[in-house]
Design brief:
The complex is a heterodimer of chains A (135) and B (418). Chain A has 135 residues and is of the alpha+beta class. In chain A, 53% of the residues lie in helices and 15% in strands. Chain A is built from eight helices and three strands. A three-stranded antiparallel sheet of chain A has the order 1-2-3. Chain B has helices at residues 3-19, 47-60, 70-90, 104-119, 138-147, 164-170, 193-202, 214-217, 222-225, 250-253, 290-304, 308-327, 354-363, 376-382, 398-416; strands at residues 28-29, 32-33, 35-36, 98-101, 125-129, 150-154, 175-181, 207-210, 229-233, 244-248, 266-268, 275-276, 332-335, 344-349, 366-367, 369-371, 387-391. In chain B, α3 crosses α11, α4 (104-119) packs parallel to α5 (138-147) and α13 (354-363) crosses α15. Helices cover 43% and strands 16% of the residues of chain B. The chains are: A alpha+beta (135), B alpha/beta (418). Chain A binds chain B through residues 20-22, 25-26, 29, 33, 52-54, 74-77, 113, 119-120, and chain B through 30-31, 353-356, 359-360, 362-364, 370-372, 385-386, 414-415, 417-418.
């Protein structure tokens, strides 16, 4: 398995192929369409992170001192962003998750879309992921 | 050429002339020409308004109403001239019935607070409609809570039209005020406000009109409507943000206590007794948003110089054409199909998240709004989480609608890929 830093670098390299927001958007939609579905039993209020315009369901679990994430959303774009986050964060140690600044988000120019906290609940999802690593 | 065609051509050249006044519309976003269809959220500003702002700060900036010096007198006069312009724009009897606020929301809060304190008691009723913006719901909820009053809601039908029968049955001797949106920001419905006001006045119930959406599209005539209060926002009418208007009938305003306390609204202050100015100054505490009000005056001048009837017809053409074209796309359902509609087109696309589609349109340089548009009860009524809303203003063109519709088709195809 790639390290967290390698996973981030890979995403940065992938996005370097795209010049425009249009292309990045389409790539993220594609990732979203390929995201493995979350088991329906986790799609409940307990796992829901409500955004103003879309919701995220997040399931976190530990296995062998590593933390794993599975998630879903009613927005395909948010699902694409989830796919990126899972690639970077899932299967890492609590310390790795706590200490990463997720610099790839800035590097691929997605900060403005991720910061739409009120709209898509994604920032709350990152917060929840980090909180889970704290426990 | 037929007469109709000649008219169309001259209309098109008029739109081009108008568009040239709006610097922001000339730009590209993401390398594509900007198509701005979020006019119900805020309108763009012509250079005349931008010039008025910079001119004011360059030449007249001073605090108003108190200064003895040259600049202050100039600024005071310009500010008060806008009050007269607003009076004429909405056909009020007197400029003393024009109060400057931060916008529609503050205007409604002012009435809820001051009218509530003066006239509303335990068990009294306030009536609003099921299609109100949160700004015309929450202030009344707050007021009803403190005054122990009851908020009643006129229901709507599946087209997004008010059920007038229910409204008539709702009126009683307990009804203290009716506050109704003129044009719904999420459905586009034009409400029969004249009819509502007439019915209410038969029982001497005052009516407030939320004209946030309508003031740019319709001619507002408070004398003819005979409404008791009316609220509007400069920023939806080509003016700057942070300025707005409350119109109120003097006989009501006179009886209402101040909304906020501070400078400018007082007659005299002592620790024993403070007395207040007469309306409108009673309701304008503290240093006002002088520059933006003055620039709002420039926006009114700009609007007054246009043939607004012709432009309204053009907006209606945009709406009809867009509705026809959008409906041809598989899976699209228009939300808000009232007979009387302003140029606001709300819709959903089956199986496609509204935000995803809105973001796709953004990648194409097209600005629309997605979500509940601050009208959650409307979304609950239609059992949908939100809509995509394209709202047109007279500077928009048929070509832009074509580009929008073709982007919409592409976006839906892309997002429907599984």
């Amino acid at each position: 398995m790639k390290t967290l830093a390698e996973a981030e670098q890979e995403i940065i390299n992938d996005f370097a192929l795209f010049d425009t927001w249009d292309e990045k958007y389409q790539y993220i939609i594609e990732l979203g369409q390929q995201l493995p579905p979350l088991d329906d039993k986790f799609k409940n209020e307990e796992h829901k992170i409500k955004g103003c315009q879309s919701s995220v369901w997040l399931h976190c679990y530990r296995d062998n001192s590593k933390i794993y994430f599975r998630a879903d959303s009613d927005s395909t774009f948010v699902k694409g962003e989830i796919a990126l986050l899972i690639k970077v964060l899932s299967g890492r140690t609590p310390d790795e998750i706590k200490n990463t600044s997720l610099h790839f988000i800035d590097a691929i120019g997605l900060r403005q879309h991720l910061s739409m906290t009120r709209a898509n609940g994604l920032a709350s999802m990152i917060k929840k992921m980090k909180e889970y690593a704290e426990v | 050429m037929t007469a109709e065609k000649v008219k169309q051509v001259s209309m098109n050249s008029e739109i081009i002339r108008i568009r040239n006044d709006f610097p922001i519309l000339q730009q590209n976003v993401y390398g594509k020409p900007l198509i701005y269809f979020d006019n119900a959220a805020t309108s763009q500003k012509p250079r005349q308004v931008l010039q008025a702002l910079s001119e004011y700060y360059s030449k007249q900036n001073a605090n108003i109403h108190r200064g003895v010096h040259y600049l202050s007198q100039q600024a005071s006069e310009m500010y008060e001239q806008v009050r007269v312009k607003v009076r004429d724009f909405i056909h009020a009897r007197s400029e003393h019935e024009i109060i400057f606020t931060r916008g529609t929301t503050e205007s409604i809060n002012l009435v809820a607070h001051s009218f509530g304190n003066a006239f509303v008691n335990k068990g009294d009723e306030i009536i609003i409609t099921a299609m109100e913006h949160h700004s015309n719901i929450v202030p009344w909820q707050l007021m009803c809570e403190t005054r122990k009053a009851v908020l009643k809601v006129i229901p709507i039908n599946d087209n997004g039209e008010l059920l007038m029968e229910s409204f008539n049955q709702m009126l009683s001797e307990r009804t203290k005020l009716i506050s109704v949106v003129h044009i719904s920001n999420s459905l586009g419905t034009i409400n029969p406000v004249k009819q509502i006001i007439e019915a209410a006045h038969q029982r001497s119930i005052p009516v407030m009109i939320d004209a946030a959406q309508s003031a740019i599209h319709e001619e507002i005539n408070v004398a003819q409507l005979d409404c008791d209060f009316l609220a509007m926002s400069s920023h939806k009418m080509l003016g700057p943000t942070g300025a707005g208007v409350l119109y109120g009938k003097m006989e009501l305003l006179e009886k209402m206590p101040p909304y906020q306390g501070g400078g400018d609204m007082i007659q005299s202050v002592s620790f024993n007794e403070t007395t207040y100015q007469n309306p409108p100054f009673r309701f304008e505490a503290g240093t006002q948003n002088i520059a933006d009000v003055i620039a709002f005056g420039a926006a009114l001048d700009y609007l007054n110089a246009l043939d607004r009837k012709d432009l309204l017809r053009h907006e209606q053409q945009l709406l009809q054409y867009a509705a026809e074209q959008v409906q041809k796309i598989d899976g699209i359902r228009i939300i808000g199909t009232a007979k009387e509609k302003a140029s606001i087109l709300s819709f959903i696309a089956e199986g496609v998240n509204a935000m995803d589609l809105g973001m796709y349109l953004d990648t194409q340089g097209i600005a629309v709004r997605t979500g509940h548009h601050c009208t959650e009860p409307v979304m609950d009524f239609f059992k949908i989480p939100g809509t995509i809303r394209a709202s047109f203003l007279f500077y928009n063109t048929i070509n832009e609608v074509d580009a929008f519709v073709s982007a919409l088709e592409k976006g839906i195809t892309l997002l429907n890929k599984k």
